[in-house]
């Protein structure tokens, strides 16, 4: 049976003698001239590609360094601006704190004065209400006394008034009313 490597690598010495060009992988058997030629070709053609790759890499590294320096400078500027804003805000906060305390004291005094005024007004309303209630009680007592006096007078009049006196009083009142009528006409 034929080995698969014989068809791909006929120079390996299995089967027929080698007639084609190929690489000898046995390091001890390789020709130093072949190696130097291969090495020379690699250096000649690879040097340009390798130097281009290294130059591109160098340019990318330098660009990255420049960008990071610019970013660093921008970050430093932002940090300084933030510090300045922080100092400004702290100053504002201190000012608000001081003004706030004085404003609180002012508001407290205003509130005390307002409550004092309200209490005085309530005291005045209370006194007016008491006077009003006293006056009303006095008026009620007067009305009761007057009613009782009137009832007493009516009782006295009814008991002492007889029919003759009653007729005389009516005729006197009619006469007064008639005289008033004549004056008006």
If you had to describe this structure to a student in words, what would you say it looks like?
The chain is an all-alpha fold and 185 residues long. It has a domain at 34-120. It is built from three helices and no strands. It is rod-shaped. It starts with a helix and ends with a helix. The model is unreliable at 1-10 (pLDDT under 50).
Task: Present the secondary structure layout.
Elements: H1 4-8, H2 32-160, H3 163-184
Order of helices and strands: HHH
Largest sheet: none
Helix/strand structural class: mainly alpha
Number of helices: 3
Brief overview:
The chain has 185 residues and is an all-alpha fold.
Highlighted features:
rod-shaped, 185 residues, disordered N terminus, mainly alpha
């Amino acid at each position: 049976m034929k080995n698969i490597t014989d068809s791909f690598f006929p120079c390996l010495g299995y089967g027929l003698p080698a007639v084609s060009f190929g690489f000898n992988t046995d390091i001890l058997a390789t020709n130093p001239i072949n190696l130097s030629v291969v090495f020379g070709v690699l250096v000649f053609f690879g040097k340009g590609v390798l130097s281009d790759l290294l130059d591109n890499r160098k340019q990318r590294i330098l660009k990255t360094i420049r960008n990071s320096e610019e970013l660093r400078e921008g970050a430093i500027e932002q940090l300084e601006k933030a510090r300045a804003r922080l100092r400004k805000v702290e100053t504002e906060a201190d000012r608000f704190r001081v003004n706030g305390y004085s404003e609180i004291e002012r508001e407290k005094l205003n509130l005390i004065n307002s409550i004092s005024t309200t209490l005085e007004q309530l005291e005045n309303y209370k006194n007016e209400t008491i006077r009003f209630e006293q006056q009303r009680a006095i008026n009620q007592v007067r009305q009761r006394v007057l009613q009782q006096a009137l009832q007493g007078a009516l009782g006295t009049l009814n008991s002492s008034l007889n029919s003759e006196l009653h007729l005389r009083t009516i005729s006197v009142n009619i006469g007064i009313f008639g005289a008033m009528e004549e004056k008006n006409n």
